[in-house]
Amino acid sequence: MRGKGSRERGVGGLGLIGILVVAAILIYLGAQMIPRQTGAGTGVTTAPTGTAAVPTRGAAAPTDRARGIECQSNLNQIRQAITMSRTTSEGMPASLADLVTMGVTPTIRACPVGGAGYAYAYDPRTGRVGCRYPGHERY
Description:
The structure is a single chain. The chain is mainly alpha-helical. The protein has a domain at about 65-130. Helices cover about 35% and strands about 5% of the residues. The chain contains two helices and two strands.
């Protein structure tokens, strides 16, 4: 049995030193993650006005990553439209323009990063569609 003057400490209690160590670790991790999330300090160069910017090195800026995801979404929508066209009585479309009835608009038929100069490549024999923009070939 403990006397009145003894100090009791909880089992899971953190002292001041422990709290400072945890705060220092969180600050360090936050400082490491912020440049990756914002694209700051990546060395990405931009092209002159009117041309598409191609990242030269480093991580892409968040807007470039968002456009890359939009490109993937466009390709996914086109691939679904090709599958729908193939499974219905319409058969394989001769070009991407034939997919207008499936909801594929002219703005969806080109990469949002590269614009109209980078229209998606379509092979009507195989039904494969892909992006020609540098870095998007794997989409």
